Amino acid sequence: MIKKGSRLLIALFLLFAGLLPISPVSAHTDNSEGFSKISGEPGKLRYELMLDYFELGRVVMLDAMPNDPVPELQRKLEDNRQAIADYVHSNLKIFINGEAAAGELVHTGMDTRIGRLYANLVLEYPNPSGSEAVEVNYGIFFDDNDELHRNIAAYQWGGKEGQYVFSSGNRDLPLGETWFVGQAVRFIQLGFHHIMIGLDHILFVAALVLTSRTVKDVLKTVTIFTLAHSVTLGLTAWNVISVPPEIVEPLIALSIAYVAVEAFIIRLNKARPYVVFGFGLMHGIGFAGALEMTGSFKASSILPLAAFNIGVELGQLLVICAMFLVMLLLRKSRWYRPVEVAAMVSVFAFGFFWYWERMLA
């Protein structure tokens, strides 16, 4: 007999799995991630800032809707240019030689990244003396919109390159100064966070576990997937390869649907290791979308990339352990097959839905 607590867990799992296909949830459930690129030019500092379009719209009242056409969204950026500039200047401070620099918003545009729409803002700050003593204080969204917001920054300044993650507890960045341990911890947290908010990646890993028959199969499959995505994560982050998101994102969604179909049609697929490796390569390119490296391979970029990958692996490990717990509870019960079918149908529905959503975007 199954204990009462186990029956409740099974019922909740079945209910959740059965409702998944009809829930229009995004593949990424966190819309508050931004990117910065900071560089020096003769007589000035250039700050390229990417912010989630609709998160920005909350604080400057863009009155924009997700189904608005792109030209209309761009027009609303231009119409509210001064309000955007006022907000950014109030929450992003640049100090040169200890004094606040007066910046100017010189460009407003739009970009798509990790399946989200971003406002691409370019600011310039005068630095006529060419001083390298620059500190950035980043406070966008933290106090008025989302305390969990983070911004992944890359800088090239004074002959030095580096990466940094702004968060509510880490708002200050003196350019050129590096704290290796603190930097590693922040990128581990970023990698873990990215896998946890990426429902598409979570479902893919979960499906791999569900469709593996033994512990040995799980370890083999996850190892192959990890090796593959680690390769393309590094190559993409360092701009060795570049694949447009409009190609990668639909393929990632298709990989989810494929694994679900495989569970019912190709149970003993000898080519599975090669298929998993191929899908892992695509997911690695998707993971790299959450990073902002400073170009070609440099020793200074090894640490953040390795730390980010460790965070991703920790996230995957958590998903795998959770799936094993569920499987152990259900494996010998009469509920196991119905739960497996409901889960795989839900995984397929999500993957297929995301595929067409991304193809038509």
Automatic annotation (TrEMBL):
Membrane-spanning intervals of the chain: 190-210, 222-241, 247-266, 273-291, 303-330, 339-356
Protein's UniProt keywords contain Cell wall biogenesis/degradation: no
Stored Pfam families: HupE_UreJ_2
Classification via InterPro entries: Put_HupE_UreJ
Record's signal peptide: 1-27
Alphabetized UniProt keyword annotations: Membrane, Signal, Transmembrane, Transmembrane helix
Protein's UniProt name: HupE/UreJ family protein
Species annotation: Paenibacillus spongiae
